[in-house]
Amino acid sequence: MKIFVSSVQKEFAAERKALGDYLSGDPLLRRFFETFLFERDIPASDRRPDLVYLEEVRNCDIYIGLFGTEYGWENQNGLSPTHLEYAEATQLGKTRLIFVKGATDEQKHPKMQALIREVGTQLVRRRFQDSADLMPDVYASLVDYLEESGQLNRAPWDARAARKATLDDLDPENIDRFVRRARKARNFPLPVEAEITEVLTHLNLLDDGKPTNAAILLFGKFPQRFTLPSEVKCAHFHGTEVAKPIPSYQVYKGTAFELVDQAIDFVMSKINVSVGTREKSAQAPVTYEIPRDVVAEAIVNAVAHRDYNSNGSVQVMLFTDRLEVWNPGTLPKALTLQDLRQPHSSIPGNPLLAETLYLTKYIERMGTGTRDMIRKCVAAGLPEPEFALTDGFVTTIRRAAGTRSASGRDQVGTKLGLSGDQVQILRKCLKTSAISDLMEIVKRTNRTKFRDQVLKPLLAEEFVEMTIPDKPRSSNQRYQTTHEGRTVLEQLKKEGGRP
Predict the structure, then answer these.
(1) I need a labelling partner for 343 at 20 to 30 A (CA). Which of 20, 34, 224, 251 fits?
(2) Global confidence as pTM
């Protein structure tokens, strides 16, 4: 089937190209659709442009109209190409999918405002802000078309209704939190008091009134009840190979936002940190061995773009020389590993999931993440990240050389295998302290997360010890800094990095 994308508005040149790359690169949509783009598919010739695009509208099965601020040049009857295309598609009974840029129309050309009103009396219009909004909306609309026409009996994972799930399985607080963050981050158009179904409909996260898999993973009360493989497994090894016993191993569950946050916290609590001096600020600067943005990009990409039809889980593995983030997925056919190192179109494997992460700035801008990772690693003095296809997709980020001693323990010096919270705990434990006191000083409220992410690594490295080691859960248990922990603090003091 042939898709015609409205042709000649200059303001949509970038969106048309991105849309063409997306539709031709998506493994599902490319099975069904061929896309016509005026500037790409019609070489310079002596044919009149107006005759060409109207002929292509007649030949298409689906007309995608992009309506913006400009109306465009007008013919002798005062009609623009966009208006003529829409009228031709309407007269011929073509399927029309209309996408309007911007939340309001007051600043648009008067004739464009009139055209938008005309369309509104005939069809449902969707609004978008940029390419990141447009792609998932087009994707959802085309999937709906395939299902309604009987050509697709099974929707993609993120657009498919979660089996046995109802709206009661969604947490209203999660949705409220999303709307607040999205309004602040990307000017999300719906108000905080919007109904749950209104938010889900806007995000294309309902399938015949039922929450989709993406809706459950993003906003569910217990997402892994419906999609167990969505959990994220994190492991920390003291060597360069997978080996037992594993010093620290966590399996995280929760919403997509919680999975990403927990996995990032796991890594950041275990990599080396440099604490600077207070020359320019009252607070000593803290620089992590691997930039947080790089760790976050690798993890959010794994959660957003993995294959959720697979029974595998995302794995985050920290070794002494590298961080590996693996997911059960692959690259779209339109992309190669080399493409990830240069400007490329974004073709998300789960566009509805990716859109919601984008709206909350978990994904900063589609198509730029891998290049941002490369740039930030180089700026931090690290080798460029490595991307590979094995039995899934793996991102490898090399750690700074020379941060481990021959015994495998983090060296005490400018770079330490400690987070800022852990340094504060070391100082607090110079006086014997209860776990509640330690949690209060670093403003933690979740005892399990605090124990796993902050306290256990200090105990494993023997920087902190229990006063009652034979009864770890005793109500009288206290913690104190060991001789080795005091050595760490002395070294930090010499370097001027007293946090």
Answers:
(1) 34
(2) 0.58
